[in-house]
């Protein structure tokens, strides 16, 4: 990194809030306590509605997959989730990988500078996304005071998320804050999909386990096989199957034969996990796709609401759902970089499903390589 840029980041990093690394060995019990505290705070924020949004407003709902990947809950303090953290990390990784910013991450001082730059950029992305969500109509029409209040809450809450992630990563907790929040969101979604007692319009509970109990009681399971956007038998079987496949793949090791010339050609095998890249490439690829979706919807709402601009239509065409809410992509790049929501969508447009799978796989492979 050039000297002026390095000096700039060093000066800025000193003014940013920071979690210090523990100067002692942190016991497992203490790590569990701090991890649980971070998780409780995050889940509480995910259930705290943003103050200032009119009760009659229809809050936009981003696609479920993006909510899961970014551990977000729309209309709450975690509306942005971990999106700014991942976006900032992705941008810096690309800049360092392309040697636009020269950093040697094997050096402790450069790693520290990279961390500080990531935090600073994450805060910048937070402000940008908060402004886009607030003034892009995501929370419905807001007056100036309401918009400012919502904006401040989004920025402050996301900065807290950034600090919680830093606390976990610096040794006070277990693992990664990003992975922790994603896992918590997935676990919460699975639990609600299995056991939610809310009764839907079809007369069955939302939770598929409770709904199956109802179905067995009345002798009618047919409506539960496929229920559109709600938990159903197909989704339950697919989830269990996917979990079993992932457990198996996680245990697979590839043994690479190696020999030691210094020890008379002694041979051994070096095991490498098949999934050694973990879920980071998928998160990075989904980050690019989500930004296409968000930016495309904002451009559409401001400059192309009638889908009559051929150039902007290449980015994405959208339509508002009945009753309002977040625009739904109907064409363009935003449409093909957003996965189908269920099997009905796959059946309705299999070309989109195939293209999305190919794009996601290609980008994930590229990120895994670099």
Give a description of the structure.
The protein is mainly α. It has 14 helices and 4 strands. Strands 1-2 form a two-stranded antiparallel sheet. A two-stranded antiparallel ribbon has the order 3-4. The radius of gyration is 23 Å and the shape is globular.
CATH fold description of the largest domain: Preprotein translocase SecY subunit
- Compute the CA-based radius of gyration: 23 Å
> How many structural domains does the protein architecture include?
3
Main sheet attributes: strand count, strand direction, barrel closure: 2 strands, antiparallel
The percent range for helix content is 55-70%
List the keywords.
370 residues; mainly alpha; Preprotein translocase SecY subunit; 3 domains
What's the quick description here?
It is built from 14 helices and four strands.
List the SSEs and their pairings.
Blueprint: H1 3-15, H2 28-46, H3 64-69, H4 83-97, H5 108-135, H6 144-172, H7 177-195, H8 208-218, H9 233-251, E1 253-260, E2 266-273, H10 280-303, H11 310-315, E3 317-319, E4 328-331, H12 332-336, H13 343-348, H14 350-369
Antiparallel strand pairs: 1-2, 3-4
Helix pairs in contact: 1-5, 2-6, 2-7, 4-5, 4-10, 5-6, 10-14
């Amino acid at each position: 990194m050039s000297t002026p840029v390095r000096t700039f980041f060093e000066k800025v990093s000193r003014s940013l809030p920071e979690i210090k690394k523990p100067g002692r060995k942190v016991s497992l019990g203490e790590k569990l306590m701090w991890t649980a505290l971070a998780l409780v705070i995050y889940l509480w924020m995910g259930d705290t509605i943003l103050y200032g949004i009119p009760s009659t407003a229809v809050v936009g709902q981003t696609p479920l997959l993006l909510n899961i990947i970014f551990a977000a809950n729309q209309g709450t303090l975690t509306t942005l989730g971990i999106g700014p953290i991942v976006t900032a990390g992705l941008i810096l990784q690309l800049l360092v990988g392309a040697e636009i910013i020269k950093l040697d991450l094997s050096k402790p001082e450069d790693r520290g500078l990279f961390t500080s730059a990531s935090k600073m950029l994450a805060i910048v992305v937070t402000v940008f996304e908060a402004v886009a969500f607030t003034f892009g109509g995501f929370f419905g029409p807001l007056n100036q005071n309401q918009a400012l209040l919502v904006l401040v809450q989004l920025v402050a809450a996301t900065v807290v998320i950034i600090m919680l992630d830093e606390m976990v990563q610096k040794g006070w907790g277990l693992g990664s804050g990003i992975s922790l929040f994603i896992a918590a969101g997935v676990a919460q979604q699975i639990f609600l999909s299995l056991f939610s007692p809310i009764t839907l319009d079809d007369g069955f509970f939302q939770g598929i386990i409770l709904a199956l109990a109802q179905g067995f009681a009345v002798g009618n399971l047919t409506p539960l096989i496929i229920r559109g956007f709600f938990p159903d038998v197909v989704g339950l079987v697919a989830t269990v199957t996917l979990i079993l496949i992932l457990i198996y793949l996680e245990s697979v090791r590839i043994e690479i034969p190696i020999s030691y010339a210094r020890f008379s050609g002694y041979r051994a095998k070096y095991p490498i996990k098949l999934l050694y890249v973990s879920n980071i490439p998928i998160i990075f690829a989904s980050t690019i796709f989500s930004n296409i979706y968000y930016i495309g919807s904002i451009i559409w709402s401001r400059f192309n609401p009638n889908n009559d601009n051929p150039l902007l239509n290449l980015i994405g065409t959208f339509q508002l759902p009945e009753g309002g809410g977040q625009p739904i992509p109907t064409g363009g790049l935003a449409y093909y970089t957003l996965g189908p929501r269920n099997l009905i969508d796959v059946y309705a447009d299999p070309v989109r499903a195939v293209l999305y799978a190919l794009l996601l796989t290609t980008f994930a492979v590229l990120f895994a390589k670099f």
